[in-house]
């Protein structure tokens, strides 16, 4: 180990349901991966290749912790998503083998400063500050695929203060999990510890201080946070 000039950053992780922790390397996110969400964002859903953006690994918010309302925004949106955890790396992964690279799954929230993202889109600037801010990725406990298999259908749902805001089915993804892994692994070599947020269904909307968000994915688990 090098003689570090400062204390090395803490390893990001997600608790595993039943014990242990999944160490996190990078956090990839898929944009516009459900047709109805693409429409509500003013886009035409089609089979154009998937596109990706990233959040820093230390944006993960664990264990139902409170989400401090982020600075520089007046429009904080929820995006409920299935999260895929890569256990085995690789480049140019074939669709047929993609699921062999998955260690497990979790329910996650891609919190978004929609006003900053919208301004960036308009000006042709990067999305990073709209998407990758502190605490922008609340996530529930990870469950291993060895326990639950590989969910390709089932309800994905988010409630705010007990009222359902987002509800859809995993089968409605434009690019399913194997296709997403195969495509992303052609852009970058995937590594153990990488997470992929697989996109949100329709119903995204603003939340404010005091709102409690509770998401659920059939056969996977839950994610919870309260904005403070
Ligand atoms: Mn998203």
Q: What's the CATH class, please? A: Alpha Beta
Distance between the termini: 40 Å
Mean pLDDT across the residues is 97
Q: Proportion of β residues? A: 25-35%
Return the CATH topology. Answer: Fumarylacetoacetate hydrolase, domain 2
Given the helix and strand composition, which structural class is it? alpha+beta
Low-confidence stretches: none
List each distinct ligand once.
manganese (II) ion
- What is the string of helix and strand elements? EEEHEEEEHEEHHEEHEEHEEE
Number of strands: 16
Helix content: 10-25%
Largest sheet: 6 strands, mixed
Strand order of the largest sheet: 4-3-14-7-8-11
Molecular shape: globular
Q: What's the layout of helices and strands?
A:
Layout: E1 13-15, E2 21-23, E3 27-30, H1 35-40, E4 52-55, E5 60-62, E6 76-77, E7 80-86, H2 95-98, E8 102-109, E9 112-113, H3 114-123, H4 128-131, E10 137-139, E11 143-144, H5 145-148, E12 155-160, E13 163-169, H6 177-187, E14 195-197, E15 212-217, E16 221-226
Parallel strand pairs: 3-14, 5-10
Antiparallel strand pairs: 1-2, 3-4, 6-9, 7-8, 7-14, 8-11, 12-13, 12-15, 15-16
The protein binds manganese (II) ion (MN).
Manganese (II) ion (MN) binds at residues 29, 79, 81, 110, 197, 199-200.
Question: What would you say this structure looks like, in words?
Answer:
17% of the residues lie in helices and 30% in strands. The protein has a six-stranded mixed sheet. The chain is built from six helices and 16 strands. The mean pLDDT is 97. It has one domain (13-226): Fumarylacetoacetase-like, C-terminal domain (Fumarylacetoacetate hydrolase, domain 2, Alpha-Beta Complex), CATH 3.90.850.
């Amino acid at each position: 180990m090098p003689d570090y000039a400062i204390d090395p950053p803490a390893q990001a992780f997600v608790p595993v349901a039943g014990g242990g922790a999944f160490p996190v390397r990078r956090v990839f996110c898929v944009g516009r991966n459900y047709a109805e969400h693409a429409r509500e964002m003013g886009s035409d859903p089609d089979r154009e290749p998937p596109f990706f953006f990233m959040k820093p690994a230390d944006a993960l918010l664990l264990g139902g912790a409170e989400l401090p309302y982020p600075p520089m925004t007046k429009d904080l949106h929820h995006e409920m998503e299935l999260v895929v955890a890569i256990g085995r790396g690789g480049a140019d992964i074939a669709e047929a083998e993609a699921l062999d690279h998955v260690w497990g799954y979790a329910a996650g929230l891609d919190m978004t400063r929609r006003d900053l993202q919208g301004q960036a889109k308009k000006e042709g600037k990067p999305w990073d500050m709209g998407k990758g801010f502190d605490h922008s990725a609340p996530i529930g406990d990870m469950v291993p695929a060895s326990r639950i298999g590989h969910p390709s259908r089932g309800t994905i749902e988010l409630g705010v203060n007990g009222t359902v805001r987002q509800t859809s089915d995993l089968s409605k993804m434009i690019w399913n999990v194997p296709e997403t892994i195969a495509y992303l692994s052609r852009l970058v070599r995937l590594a153990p510890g990488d997470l992929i947020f697989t996109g949100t269904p329709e119903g995204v909307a603003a939340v404010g201080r005091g709102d409690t968000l509770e998401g659920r994915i059939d056969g996977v688990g839950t994610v919870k946070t309260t904005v403070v």
